[in-house]
Amino acid sequence: MLEPVNVAIIYYSATGTVHALARAAAEGAEKAGAHVRLRKVAEVAPPEAISANPAWAEHVRDTADVAEARLDDLEWADAVLFGTPTRFGNPAGQLRAFLDTTGPLWFQGKLADKVYSAFTASNTAHGGQESTLLALGNTFYHWGGIIVPPGYTDPVQFQSGNPYGTSHVAGDGPPGEVVLRAARHQARRVVDTAASLKAGRAA
Ligand SMILES: Cc1cc2nc3c(=O)[nH]c(=O)nc-3n(C[C@H](O)[C@H](O)[C@H](O)COP(=O)(O)O)c2cc1C
User: Fold this and answer.
1) Ligand 1 centroid to 88 CA: how many Å?
2) Domains in the chain, please, with CATH?
3) 158-186 as b/e, with b when 16 or more CB fall inside 10 Å?
4) What is the pTM of this model?
5) pLDDT at residue 1 greater than cutoff 80
6) pLDDT tens digits, residue range 114-124?
């Protein structure tokens, strides 16, 4: 009997949108039988920037109990889903700051051969979601990762519509059922792929 797949969901969220997607991904991964660690990356913005934005400050308070991501979470995981807001068409600096601490693991080859996938949010419909996800993909290539996008592998993808990774337009309001289903589907697909790889390697 194989060990369940270990999935880390590592995200940054300033005002809660990406956090909602991360929680849906965690649900999807758990339902698919994985062991899940939901982790936020450390905040690097100055406290005065956070307190100047009530929604940001509120979200920091609301998620105070979410554990911070550590390198050990990456080492533990068979698969990692990363979530980030779109910032000028790129991942948030907070997530990049975490990724930029992974050099020692990368150097030892410990990030290779894992499954990676990503999700995002932006304020506007054409505000750079795909460029953000593709930019994160550059890091997965360098790690020697196995990138598993959702593609159009479930009917929900024809409604939510981003084959690169679940994405939400935050300017339209909080994530609704369609995008949350897409996040659950993406996570399930990641778990299924990682489980096949794990079983194949154990055989
Ligand atoms: C510095 C900065 C840059 C941003 N750049 C973009 C952008 O390029 N396109 C866009 O549509 N939204 C942009 N946004 C809006 C964020 O993507 C949006 O607030 C975020 O996805 C909401 O996610 P969160 O609630 O998890 O923080 C930007 C926001 C900030 C603060």
Assistant:
1) 7
2) 6-202 (3.40.50.360)
3) eebebebbbbbbbeeeebeeebbbbbbbb
4) 0.98
5) no
6) 999 999 999 99
123 CA from centroid of ligand 1 (Å)? 5
Q: Is the CB of 16 under 6 A from ligand 1?
A: yes
* Short-list 33, 26, 39, CA closest to 4: 33
Whether ligand 1 lies within 6 angstroms of the CB of 132 is answered as no
**CA pair distance 97, 94, nearest whole angstrom:** 5
Segment 115-138 shows an average pLDDT of 98
Of 59, 123, 132, 180, the one to substitute when testing ligand 1's pocket (max ligand atoms within 8 A of C-beta) is 123
Give me ligand 1 centre to Cα 12, in Å. Answer: 11
Interatomic CA distance for residues 1 and 5, integer angstroms: 12
| Cα dihedral across residues 42, 44, 49, 51: positive or negative | positive
136 and 91 Cβ atoms separated by less than 8 Å:
yes
Of 196, 177, 186, 176, nearest to 153 by C-alpha is 186
Rounded to an integer, what distance in angstroms lies between the CA atom of residue 31 and that of residue 57?
A: 31
Mean pLDDT across the stretch 35-46? Answer: 98
Q: Which atom of ligand 1 is nearest to the CA of 19?
A: 26
- CA nearest to 28, candidates 129, 169, 179, 147: 179
What is the gyration radius of the CA atoms in the chain, in angstroms? Answer: 16
